[in-house]
Amino acid sequence: MRLPFFFIVLIYLWPDLTTSQDTSLGQESQPELLQQLLQQLQQTSPQTIDQEILNAAGPEAFNSDVSDPIHQEFKIQGDIVFKYGELAGALQPEPAVHGGLVRKKRKTPQDLTKMWPNAEVLIAFDSRASFSPEERSLFQSALEQWQRKTCVRFRTPTINDIHQGRSFIFVQDGKGCSSPLGMNPMRETGIFKYQPLTLARPCRTRRIMMHEVGHSLGLIHEQSRSDRDSSVNVMWQNVPVHMRHNFQKFTEQVTNNRNTPYDYESLMHYGPNAFTTNGAPTLRTLDASYQDRIGGFQEISRYDAMAISNMYNCGARMQPFIPPWWHRLLGRKKK
Ligand SMILES: [Zn+2]
Fold it and tell me: Where is the Peptidase M12A domain (predicted)?
């Protein structure tokens, strides 16, 4: 990252370094050039992650809670799957959502996010799903990104794991792109306990894969955090009534925000026009410089990674690498 930036600064300064006498040239165009180059550095995509998921899932996916009565499951916010009844009390009641009426909580909110024991995630492909070798390797690289930035580790379940009752993620074909939140073995077939990670063919991009795995590890959408109102405003007037539930915040007990600041650059953040029907923005960032950038980031952000490390209590493993000779040096000094 530093090297390209250095070159860009160099390119920007080049006329000054080489033709210092020519002060009239490009005084207005240089800041524009720098701005353009800086924009290229921001790693944003023209399509936001919610648009990408929506396009992959089809228009009905975001219309309302999508229910699957066979499995007693439903989907909220376009791509998070819950069992019936699981969400009761987990979302904050908001007058804008309920037409001025606030529903009474029926259940004490609790931390819904179940973590994978020892930060070890078991994951397998459904052999019936038609994933090409390229798609499998793309998925592998999405997992590697989470492994590289956090302490979470992925592996294929063994028959012993199954006999021990351990649950796993089952990567499958299906409608849209979706995942449950954290470890949630919502399905059972014989001795197999598993949770679906659904990737229809158009969902098989690296960014969507990393985003859905983010949910499987326990991350909610950034704009649903309990503290989001100090960073983004929901423009309720641009959200049709039947879509407003998608902007309900989770309660603090559910998410506790993982001791990280609100992160506009999160891979879990939707774009400024998510769930709009009139084309007008539904999210307004209080930091205006992010208005057109939220939802467009391509990589797992620093705070996405930190949230997972805090969740899995493995911040210590995220310390900078210290070479072994340094310990030997310290040991000698002690003596
Ligand atoms: Zn999502």
Answer: 106-315
Active site annotation includes 212: yes
Alpha-carbon span 177 to 179, nearest angstrom: 7
- Tell me the sheet residues that pair with 193: 188
| Whole-number Cα distances in Å, 229 to 80, 136, 277, 302, 307 | 21, 38, 22, 21, 19
pLDDT in tens, 162-193: 999 999 999 999 889 999 999 999 999 999 99
Q: pTM of this prediction?
A: 0.79
- Specify binding-site residues for Zn(2+): 211, 215, 221
The single residue of 73, 135, 212, 222 carrying the catalytic annotation is 212
Which sign does the torsion angle of CA 153, 154, 158, 160 carry?
Answer: positive
In a domain, 182, yes or no: yes
Report how far residue 151's alpha carbon sits from residue 213's, in angstroms, rounded to the nearest whole number: 14
CA of 101 to the centre of ligand 1 (A): 27
Q: How far is the CA of 153 from the centre of ligand 1 (A)?
A: 21
- Return d(Cα 207, Cα 49) in angstroms, integer: 8
Output DSSP code: residue 233.
Answer: E
Using the mean position of ligand 1's atoms as its centre, give its distance from the Cα of residue 26 in Å: 44
Which 3 state secondary structure label does DSSP give 83? Answer: strand
- Name 105's Cβ contacts closer than 8 Å, sequence gap at least 6: 88, 89, 93
**9-60 pLDDT per residue, tens:** 333 333 333 333 333 333 445 555 555 555 544 555 679 999 999 888 876 6
CATH of the domain at 170: 3.40.390.10
Q: Which residues have C-beta under 5 Å from ligand 1, the single-atom ion?
A: 79
Distance 33 CA to ligand 1 centre (A): 35
**Quick check: is 39 in a domain?**
no
Give a yes or no: residue 100 inside a domain.
no
- Residue where the block lists tokens 């969740």: 311
- Binding site: residue ranges? 211, 215, 221
Q: Could you tell me which residues are beta bridge partners of residue 76? A: 80
Quote the domain boundaries for residue 189: 49-86+110-318
